[in-house]
Specification:
Length: 351
Amino acid sequence: MPLMLQGRRIPEAWGGKPSVGTGRHGSSAPSLRIALVNNMPDPAFEDTGRQFFTLLNSAVGDHNAVLQLFSLPQVIRGERVLEHFHAAYSDIHDLFNGQFDGVVITGTEPLKHNLREEAYWAALTGLFDWAERNTTSAVLSCLAAHASVLHSDGIERCPLGDKQFGVFEFPKSDHALMNLNTGSVRFPHSRWNEVRKDDLIAHGYSVLTHSPEGGVDCFIKRKKQSLFVHFQGHPEYDTQTLLKEYRRDVKRFLRAERETYPNMPRGYFDATTAQLLDEFRDKALCNRHEDFMTQFPDSSVPAAPVNTWHDSAVSIYRNWLQFIAERKDERRAFTPQVAHSVAVPARNEIA
């Protein structure tokens, strides 16, 4: 059944047909309540909300589920985004005063070298502490994953020599979250820093996907009441997201907002498109001014990328929702009247 949006209208730009709800589907209460805390900066804010909504809507299956949208108020918003925010997002106090089975927390663009110096640090770490005590499972995306392990285990992220940018293949573990029909997964990454496998394992994390080229992708750890699922990559990305980021970085180079011309995302463009973009780069290096961006081969590029990660992303999030649902069913079954009974393990044990 379709995913509902708690108490808000679904933005037209999201392009879906899911019903709008306030916590009910017909006469039944929702079986799952999920929160999305979208902290992305303004240029990516609306796209990120839509991407996670679309992904969860594809993954929800037969569950009667409601999604409620939030964002930390410490992330400054411009006028245009605030209009969308007030139409679709709830006050953060509704999160802390409500009951949620799962939460997805995004990162945001860092402004400081030390994450502890960010203006939103206290609010973000307070959100992690709340999720540990009040959810069955939490998903931490990209910078939120880095902030979470720094907060709880003191694991510092390590700067990379260049941007980890592209679609990378990862052999998958036999963990229940990775219960897929393929032997490996391919997911987009876009980051300048990483947390490393040895550091994570030393602090009790289980690394589910890792490769020499892509580094760590997904890793988990139980924290108090909640299973924390961390992604350094972006399974939620649209087909065109890496292209948009690459185009943005090229424009920043032409504006002299960055010193070097950006590398193309790896494993993303076909050979013909890559050649077109190489030719544009060679000309741009000799014509470094913003007006040259009009020569970017937009008419040839948009149809080129092929989405090789969507099905795997849907499967992983479906497994995540199933884990939450099974744990919720177990709690319902284990009432005081049957407290002497032996609890039955979940059919799809994850923790």
